Amino acid sequence: MKMYLKLIPIILFSSCEKSINNYAIVIHGGAGTVIRENTSKEMQEKYEDKLREALQVGYSILEKGGNSVDAVENTIKILEDSELFNAGKGSVLTNEETVEMDASIMTGHDQNAGAVATLKTIKNPISAARAVMEKSNHVFLSGDGAENFAKEVGLETVNNKHFITESQLNQIRKIKENKYGTVGCVALDKSGNITAGTSTGGMMNKKWNRIGDVPVIGAGTYANNKTCGISATGWGEYFIRNVVAYDISAMMEYQNKSMEEAAKISIFDKVGKMGATGGVIGIDKNGSVMMEFNSPGMYRGYKTENSEYVIKMFKD
Ligand code: ASP
Predict the structure, then answer these.
(1) Residue 236 is inside which H or E element, if any?
(2) pLDDT digits (tens, 9 = 90+) for 104-149
(3) Which residues line ligand 1 (CB under 6 A)?
(4) What is the atom index within ligand 1 of the atom nearest the CA of 278?
């Protein structure tokens, strides 16, 4: 009986596109209190338009035969530049009312990866993560060092105020609560390479240079052409403790689970059981798309070779 009850939400809220696709892209704009009753038609349209715009950018790169790294970076840049999401401009504020951003990217054919944490002036943190992957001997840079590296490779910098929006200032001053609005993207290109990337302002009201799961390879981001690419969003501490993104890949590799089965175990039976909420998106090596979450909603969308553009926000 217990098992049966636990399965109900899983079946009702599953979201997966199982056909075989040579190329595909899936994105998220964070999971959290995305509830239809609290969202005006106008806001819903704004979110949907931005998610569609981001998907279109990535999909057109893949369609023309471009690689999945370009698709993921350019898709995430659209979401970072939008005030709507907790990444780049529009990031949640720290306790000191500043912005500190984390991002990571990983390629599935060679398990190369790049990550940055606590960036304050780099306009597009996902590009800094990519630069760490491609232009340094390291995987993970943080703070001033990461900023200096990004400047050295010529990335655009802006004043920290660029990222701070009126709406986030009001939020932090009103309620010092958590918000999940991280962005992420996974793409499979025509050569069969999967790339996953994630970018965030972290958790609202964070202190002490807190770093979440997003730049932690294996927690918030993971890619392996043998299995899948995953990008996560949610309460980062729990995603680190459950090594969510790698856990899904490992269940597929060592237990022959499907990506969807593995994601459900990770999100519902592990993260969920510990009392945390969030979600994951993924593409497996066959081009199937997965979007699973245990929160009230998750901004999300995908487009595959064989599907229309699909954009969703709420549970249903
Ligand atoms: N996972 C992010 C973090 O903990 C937050 C989010 O997904 O919005 O930093």
Answers:
(1) helix 236-241
(2) 999 999 999 999 999 999 999 999 999 999 999 999 999 999 999 9
(3) 30, 86, 180-182, 200, 202-203, 212-214, 233-234, 236
(4) 7
